[in-house]
Amino acid sequence: MKVWLLYPDREWESRSPYAKKEDIIKDLNFHIIFKMMSREDEYFYPVASQVMMKPLLTRRDIEYRQEMMKDATKNSETFMEIYSIATSAMKTIEKYNETYDRRKGDLNSGAMVTELLNFVSFLVKQLNKLAYIIDETKGEYTSEAMKSFCERFADEYGNEKMKKIVNEMYHLDYWTAGGKLTISGNCGCGMKIDKLEVNKIHRNKRRKAARPLNVLEKVNIMLKSNTFALELEEEKEDARQLEKIAIGHILKVYDGFIKELKIFFEQLRFQMAFYASCASFYKRLDKIGLMMSVPTFATEGNGTFIGLYELTYAIYIQKAPVVNGLRMTDKRLLFVTGANQGGKSTFLRSIGVAQVLFQAGMLVPAEIFSGKIYDNIFTHFTRREDSAMNSGRLEEELKRMRGIIDLVTPNSLILLNESFASTTEKEGTIIMSGVVKALSEYGCSMYIVTHLYELARQIFAENLPYVQFLSAERRNDGKRTYKMVPRQPGYTSYGLDLYEEVLGKITDVITPEEYEAVNVND
Amino acid sequence: MSFVSILGRRDFDNDKEQEFFEQPSYFNDLNLNQIVNRIIGLRIDYDLKKYYYVMPKTVEEICFRQEVLKDFYNEGIMDATMSFSNGLFRARNYWGYSVSAETDIQQKRWKIDSAYAYINAVREFAASLDGLEVVSEGMKQLKSYLKDMVESKEFNEFADETVTLMNELFDIEFTLEMERNSITVIPKRNEEHYIEKVAEMLEIPEGTKVNTYFGSPLTGALILSGVEEKIINILQKEYPESFAKIDEYDDNYSSFIDSTLVRLEEEMQFYIAYILFRKEISQYNFTFCTPEVRDAKDAAFAIVDGYDLALARKNSEAGLKTVSNSLDYRDKERFLVITGPNQGGKTTSARSMGQIAYFAMLGLDVPAASVKIPFFHGIMTHFEVEESLDTGAGKLKEELNRLKPMMEEKGQRNFIVINELFTTAASYDAYIMGSHVLKHFIELDYFGVYVTHIKELAKESETVASLVAGISELDGKTRTFKIERKASEGIGHASTLVDKYRLNYDEIKGGLLR
After folding, report:
1. Same domain flag for B323 and B402
2. Does the interface predicted TM-score (ipTM) exceed 0.90?
3. Would you call A206 an interface residue with chain B, using a CB distance cutoff of 8 Å?
4. Of A273, A372, B53, B511, whose CB is crowded by the most CB atoms within 10 A?
């Protein structure tokens, strides 16, 4: 049966995640979010990371999940219960698979057949449990996802079919209980019996323990001309083996049914895990006092964000941080320059995190978030952990940039944070201006935090209609507010302030104009 | 019927003399082991080493094989041969079971099974070949051999009796009612079908494969178990006439498998294995051609677009392309000396020539677009071995030791592949020794290819041509892997990282719009 809780028309598949999801996780600190989502159960971690790193690409898909999210928060306990049933089913399936592999699927072995019989009846039991829960709670759900899930379940795993299967399984158990197996065949190559077919299986109502024949029974058998008794141990074993292979042959017919159940439980566990992890996540955020809201869809351009904050940082400091806003309705190229330590990177990350949550169908850390749906999100952050300025680091950055360009589509969002800080400003500017020009002309949306003032000023001079310039605010007294304000790009990131703060004032400073003059002469 | 060999062989003395066939010494150097092991491995039930390790002794044999191979490219012939092989394989197995059977009834029945498989295989093969057009002398001989056989009175009487009996045996049917302590045998089939019932209950969609029948597991697949014996005893009473016929048949026929046919079938595996290998790599669209082999003093040697098949196979698995090269010997030229940058394709091209010579001499098609090649009595190679712990002097000695038998061999024309001789010797010494080796082989009128870093050896002459592994003219450093005729020279270069990652505006833009 199709689970279809993550998408309205398909099951979960790990294929086609964000092209550079490892970079997104690293650059936007997503591990902090995954960790918090998986406090209840460690299996939630891989689930959250996989689901969130595979973007939803249509409004329909996002709304489907947003709706379902409401049922998940309202019925978080039921969801956990369904998740646990699916989990125990999966564990049994995995254990069975191990046995199966160990015995190489050899249904000739009697132990394997018994194993399989137990296994199928366990799965059927789990289905019955699910049926009970679904029946109890089906009135509670408002989302399309849950409502149609309940309907499909009643349809496909309803009691009638299950009852029949359980009954047949009862007869298959004839060989431990005693009964009669009828098979037909002919003599094949080498006179071996061949082309065998099972005709009938009948199990005795009451179990009878195996015992040797008494004299009367033996005589009875001898009187029938075409019957022989199984007296030698060898013969008994032969007969039992023939029975086993017959039963094993029948059980192969159940293969498809078992496979289907396996996929069902696997999907159910995975999909339920995602919603259960979200429900627990929101609850925890609520406790710290972090406000989350349902995002909406931008009608034009790249959207508007109000009261946006950086979620991973907020989780880290356990309180609500500074909020920022941004209007990109008619823009798709954003330059953020300005004071060092002014919150530029945090601002960029807050946009990225919210965008990923939005495209996962989740709530977002903002008062208002009206977003655009991108095909793909790329991040290109300078990696500070890589030691100082050297060619190895520049090469690493160039390589990552090449990787992005190889995969980018016009409807991609690219977040660049201090890219090419690993080389001289002059070289960095040359590289970046080529990259920014080519990609923005291609149609990409780019949000850029940079210290390359020369580059920002060049772009500013071009007076492109789709560019927005922001700067981290620095009051005249040197104090940072961590707010981004619209401003024409200047020459300095006021790093001297920091220098002064830490090490004392430098007196003989050349002006930006003098610097410019020197640079031109260079 | 006169003597027939599908390999164009004149005698089979070799088969008797040699039990064990050793891999030729040049196999590893030319990476032929990778290819030939795979080819042989595709027909693992046959010992094909003797056919792949021993070369034909004359050009006539080579041409004979080339013709037969063309017939095997015909899917119909290939399929017919494969199924003939399978049938004969079964017949031989069943015969073996009969010989080793423990009970009288099994001994007799396996023999009938063997005869039945044999008859079907022979008749089907003869009929298939009859409907197919064969071109080669070898296949024509085989076809007529088979035709004579299946048209003979002896064969037909034997076949008719076998088939009639077999049909009767198939009709010995039964139903077993199995209870804990007894089994009842009823001499006909029960008409209920349990599996179908289950499939219906599980709502298995129509068209899904559900096996109704299964085979006996009792005491392996061969010997009758105690229970089976008892079942058969009862059936013997129920079907007395059929069982009497089994005895009668056994008295009439003792052995029936034709030994010439068995040998032909084994020889055909030489072609089948090769074709199966070609099919396996067909997805990569490699080019192959039938080489023109001549046994004459002035025979031409020219390769168009030859490539290293072992490398091409590996590259293709990794999605990479392999460069091919055209190489030729003009007039009196006897040696191609290849110099050029490391990793530039020198060894690969030398290897590809060796591979082409091997397959050409074996009578098979070669990895190239077109090939003219003289008849070689043998192939000899000398490759640098991996650095060992030996000192320089030790290594040089080891090289010379390996070279010695090659230099002493003074037979008919051979093909020589030398890869980096004397790398540990001083350049001057290496040059002197190297040119001496060249001269020696040229005087013997051998052909060869010599890969070296000593550019003086590449000095062109009437008998030596200089070839150089190419470098892109655009940047002066990218290897083209093309081997070109020109005087030996030197190289070197560098460029910026931005270029390397193609990250300037024009290249990004160009790439995005493509």
Report:
1. yes
2. no
3. no
4. A273
